[in-house]
Specification:
The chain is of the alpha+beta class. 39% of the residues lie in helices and 24% in strands. The chain has a four-stranded antiparallel beta sheet. Helix 4 crosses helix 5.
């Protein structure tokens, strides 16, 4: 069984954005589910098009984010300590949108869907906050590609959030917030 060496990403971590609306007790509950997972240089962490069951937090090292199209793969980002990835697949059931590969030795903590689900079942309204973060991240990526104005970005975030909250609620079987 994997060890949970270390601790959950701290509130000073860039990854903490994902959990800003959770209580300390909810964060502690999630931290109990974290699994320490080391990777070696060039090892694949996730594969584009595959199902995603875990959210990854990079503790040490760097992870290359790669997207393949037309038989070619290109690096679109490099993630370092304090960052996270895999949230969209974990929260919506969508397949992985990118392949991630260790650029050197990497230490990650993984959070399984079942552990997040326990918290969401107790507080379904968290789906809205998580959807907003997902929508913001997705829109920021497309803003770089499409050079969107600030107003266009905000409009796209609102639209994407609405779509994603429905997917998250459906995927986890959550009732709509009052």
């Amino acid at each position: 069984m994997a060890s949970t060496r270390g601790c959950a990403p701290s509130s000073s971590s860039r990854g903490a954005e994902l959990f800003r609306d959770l209580s300390p007790e909810e964060i502690d509950r999630l931290a109990l589910g974290l699994r320490y997972t080391p990777y070696s240089r060039a090892e694949t962490l996730t594969r584009q098009g595959s199902e995603g069951h875990d959210l990854y937090f990079v503790h040490r090292g760097e992870v290359s984010v790669r997207v393949g199209a037309d038989g070619a793969e290109r690096e679109i980002a490099v993630l370092g300590p304090g960052t996270f990835f895999g949230e969209r697949s974990l929260m919506t059931g969508e397949v992985r949108s990118a392949t991630t590969v260790a650029r050197g030795d990497v230490e990650c903590y993984r959070l399984a869907r079942a552990d997040l689900e326990k918290v969401l079942q107790q507080r379904p309204e968290l789906a809205e906050a998580l959807a907003e973060i997902l929508a913001r991240r997705e829109t920021e990526l497309s803003a770089h590609r499409d050079t969107l104005s600030r107003e266009a970005r905000e409009s796209r975030i609102a639209s994407e959030k609405s779509r994603l909250v429905g997917k998250i609620r459906n995927f986890f079987g959550l009732k709509a917030a009052n």
